[in-house]
Amino acid sequence: MTAVDDRPTTTNIVKIFENLEVPEGFKVELLRGVIVMMAGPDVAHNDIVEAIQDQIPRQRWRRLQTQDIAMLEETSEPQPDLVVVERGAGPGHGRLMPSQVITMLVEVVSKTSVDRDYVVKRSIYAAAKVPAYLIIDPVMAQCVLLTEPTGEGEDADYRCQRITKFGDITPLEPVGIELDTSEFESYEKVRPHRYP
Questions:
Q1: How deeply is 183 buried, as exposed, middle or buried, from its count of CB atoms within 10 A (0-12, 13-18, 19+)?
Q2: Is the pLDDT of residue 130 over 80?
Q3: Mean pLDDT of the chain, nearest integer
Q4: Is the pLDDT of residue 3 over 80?
Q5: Cβ atoms 32, 18 nearer than 8 A
Q6: Which of 64, 65, 118, 173 has an alpha carbon within 20 to 30 A of 86's alpha carbon?
């Protein structure tokens, strides 16, 4: 008698993910073969995303919210808080934006996403060779800009890391702006963490 392995394969998990019915008010992502579901974000989170989007010039950049990203080698389809793509690059239709055309991804840390944003997604985005990954952290009132992706798979990382505090100007060379963070609010009554 032959044993049958009925664990989901990479192909099956992607199909399950793509056909998943997500309850209203929840966000779902596929991160290295793991389906992650999260409740909707804090208002401070959304205000920060809006402030960033307003500062990135629309004439040159597409600033896409809730856009799923295709990172097939990673068995990942994350949904960053903001995706920045040069105007004219990438598809005009469809659910997935290929990682190869992305200039910068932005994640605003939530109270429950610290490890995912600082560790898991950092590695996934570096493995996909996304040129810049900006982590906005209302827990620690800081911005972390990661550039120069290197490595493969779970060993991938960014060579350069620049940390600025909320209230300071944050240079974003990949998109040619200096980000004003003076409007960014920190979360209240949240335990500090140890990242980056």
A1: middle
A2: yes
A3: 87
A4: no
A5: no
A6: 118
How many C-beta neighbours within 10 Å does residue 109 have? 26
**How far is it, in rounded angstroms, from Cα 20 to Cα 157?**
30
Measure the CA–CA gap between 180 and 25, rounded to whole angstroms. 29
Closest CA to 147 of 137, 162, 128: 162
Which band of pLDDT confidence, cut at 50, 70 and 90, is reported for residue 43?
confident
pTM for the model stands at 0.85
CA atoms within 13 A on the CB side of 165: 1
Report the pLDDT value the prediction gives residue 20, as an integer from 0 to 100. 72
Report domain extents, the chain.
41-180
Q: Which helix (H) or strand (E) holds 48?
A: helix 43-55
| Most confidently predicted of 6-15, 25-34, 41-50, 118-127 | 118-127
Q: What CATH homologous superfamily does 41-180 map to?
A: tt1808, chain A (3.90.1570.10)
Count CB neighbours of 161 within 10 A: 15
Task: Find where tokens 């804090």 sit.
Answer: 42
Token match 């840390």: residue?
109
Q: Are strands 102-108 and 132-137 parallel, antiparallel or unpaired?
A: parallel
Q: Is 164 helix (H, G, I), strand (E, B) or coil?
A: strand
